[in-house]
Automatic annotation (TrEMBL):
GO terms for molecular function: transaminase activity. It is an enzyme of class 2 (transferase). It comes from Thermostichus vulcanus str. 'Rupite'. Its cofactor is pyridoxal 5'-phosphate. This is Aminotransferase. PROSITE patterns: AA_TRANSFER_CLASS_1. The keyword Nucleus does not apply. Its EC number is 2.6.1.-. The keyword Transferase applies. Belongs to the class-I pyridoxal-phosphate-dependent aminotransferase family. Residues 36-387 form the Aminotransferase class I/classII large domain.
């Protein structure tokens, strides 16, 4: 099959990132002077902390402007290894770390070095928008496993066991999760680990980019910290975007078994080479400065209060349900009773009440809507009020 424009089969079925495109429409409406409440953002609304920006400016002024090693500057790779050891209980050495252009490139690199046509990748649904596209681009098959709202949208050991086939190569686990805010607890991870270890050669890609954003009683646990056996099977994908409000900097990292990391370095050396040199010095500051902890905690506490505000507002909507999100900055709620598809719901909500939200179909769940609380409380309150009017008008 050759497409009319001469495009490859690889990209013929690729859809644009739904989250990025809704934000773009909302921004365009705002630019026209409309009073849009944007609750669709996938990025923190805070500035990158001052000490991190200053470190990058300093690096730029010191002339850190040339090509560096494709894998990242050694000091940053070491700082990531130290962080993973101290905070996550993961024993990676410096040469098991690759610095990439965001978590997205990390995941893309991984798909390219791990997957062949015919391989299966298990994706718990709802999933982050880019996972299926990245897996499909690598030619592998996505195996979608729906999770239950009553289980907090978390994959159970029984569901994982059922989805396994002789072709299963990778499981992607995202905790805290986008779009649901789900955080896997220790006993849930232990149950999954038992199934994972029962299959030889199954790798788990742990996307832990929201690890710093957990609320209430919840705390983040890295799957790989459970035992040395599980550690051998885990590949970590993370980055600076969400924890440090550094989305535009494009810095993520991969940590995993050395042969996989070496292959990813090799691949990246032929695609993007090193991440922007002076940006890496900002990331190094983020990991090593004693000032960072307080900046992160301030953002986390603000997110925590907004979460409570938003969950309360959504639960007050007639016919709408949502589990308590324990991490990230999203609320994922069920609109089945409205009888609308998620796209109809979001299009009408934007048109009739000027509120931007993301349809759940983008995450594989057409009966749900994602709202983001990565915006100020006044916008959240106004958005919730309009959402209430909208749902009541249906
Ligand atoms: C934001 C995000 C990423 C990666 O973001 P980058 O900006 O590329 O670092 C990865 N996974 C999930 C689930 C995300 O929400």
């Amino acid at each position: 099959m050759v497409s009319a424009a001469g495009l490859s089969q690889r990209v013929a079925h690729l859809s644009p990132s739904a989250t990025l495109s809704i934000s773009a429409v909302a921004k365009a409406m705002q630019a026209e002077g409309l009073d849009v409440c944007s609750l669709s953002a996938g990025e923190p609304d805070f500035e990158t902390p001052e000490h991190i920006r200053a470190a990058a400016v300093r690096a730029l002024e010191e002339g850190k402007t040339r090509y560096g090693p494709a894998a990242g500057i050694p000091a940053l790779r070491q700082a990531v290894a130290d962080k993973l050891q101290q905070e996550n209980g993961l024993n990676f050495s410096r040469d098991q770390i690759l610095i990439s252009n965001g978590g997205k490139q990390t995941l893309f690199n991984l798909a390219m070095v791990l997957l062949d046509p015919g391989d299966e990748v298990i994706l718990p649904v709802p999933y982050w928008v880019s996972y299926p596209e990245i897996v499909t681009l690598a030619g592998a098959k996505v195996v979608r496993v729906p999770t239950e709202e009553a289980q907090g949208f978390k994959l159970t050991a029984a569901q994982l066991r059922q989805a396994l086939t002789p072709h299963t190569k990778v499981l992607i686990l995202n905790s805290p999760a986008n779009p649901t805010g789900a955080v896997y607890h220790r006993h849930e991870l232990e149950a999954l680990a038992e199934v994972i270890l029962s299959v030889p050669d199954l790798y788990v890609i742990c996307d832990e980019i929201y690890e710093k954003l957990v609320y209430g009683e919840a705390h983040h646990i890295s799957l790989g910290s459970l035992s040395p056996e599980v550690f051998q099977r885990t590949i970590l994908s993370s980055g600076f975007a969400k924890a440090y409000a550094m989305t535009g900097w494009r810095i993520g990292y991969l940590a995993g078994p050395k042969p996989i990391v070496d292959a990813a370095i090799n691949l990246q050396s032929h695609s993007t080479s090193n991440v922007c040199t002076f940006a890496q010095y900002g990331a190094l500051e983020a990991l090593t400065s004693p000032l960072s902890a307080a900046s992160i905690e301030k953002m986390r506490q603000e997110f925590s209060q907004r979460r409570d505000l938003m969950v309360q507002g959504i639960r007050a909507l007639p016919g709408v349900t949502c589990p308590q999100p324990e991490g990230a900055f999203y609320v994922f709620f069920n609109i089945r009773q409205t009888g609308l598809s998620s796209v109809e719901f979001c299009q009408r909500l934007l048109k009739e009440q000027q509120v931007a939200a993301v349809p759940g179909v983008a995450f594989g769940a057409d009966h749900c809507i994602r709202l983001s609380y990565a915006t100020d409380r006044a916008t959240i309150e106004k958005g919730l009020h309009r959402l209430h009017q909208f749902v009541c008008s249906l």
